[in-house]
User: Fold this.
Amino acid sequence: MLLQQGKIWHTKFKHNGETIKRTTGQTNKKEAEKVARQIRKSFLKELVKSKLEKSAQYTFGAALVKWIETDAPQSMLSHARNTLIHLEHVALVDIIPAAHDMKAEMAKRLAEPTVNRRLSVVQTVLNKAYKEWEWLDQPLGDKIKKFSEKGTEREFYLEPDQFEKLLRSIEHQEVRKFICIAAHTGLRRSELYNLRPENFKAPYIILPNKTKSKKARTVPLIEELHDSLTLPWDCSLTQIRYWFEKARKKMGMEHIRVHDLRHCFASWIASNPEIPLTTLRDLLGHSSLTVTSKYAHLRGQHFEAVSRTLGGTKKGTSTHAVH
Assistant:
């Protein structure tokens, strides 16, 4: 918009609700229009430059700390720590290529779902930097490309003899007890660590409805481990992670993780055909039997019995009758 004050033409426009007024220095209206276009173009150019300079001041490390101090969930702190190793000093405006380099490096030694969880940390931080903190002027979180989730389910578990070897490799006594009880109850790390004396009424561990599934549940603990469950735990989560990672490295099995102890419990229970999958569902606190059914393939004896029964019905049966 042009307006004349005396003989001089001025340009006026709005940006984010603010009125910007500049003089063109021209008395001729046509010349003033040319200058006004240049003024608006220069204004936008300087604005973009200013935003880029401001964004470059913010590193991923600073943004991650802000997220952790505000509302980062406990379950993501370990993944956040691992992204920091790769991206701490990277400016937010340069994060996309750096994040994809991190993805390629992690994929060499980690399962794709694990890499995806760490990329989710990056996405969350970028989204907050854009939507809530105004540290970015564009939604970079949308440009983080994760691995396809299809076919990447990871259900690793140890055989009993492998688990015994793992226990022997853990040098810290309290951590060894924690790991042993985790594998014999199927409790999630946070569920087990947050237990208090009132949660154990021998022989049962009683979980409140504040767990991940939002359902209260009861899990039996074998008598041999009752004396090992001394609550609260005399070790930190950091110590548990440290001694577990040291033990798995000593075993040459650096791919296993504490959460795999839950799969150990599930696989050991599922392999017994006398225990219904519904019981396993309740012990694990799954939301539905569909989630638990991924362990159904371990019920070998049960399925073999079905095969023997059906095989017996074939005697004297013509194959033509099937068709």
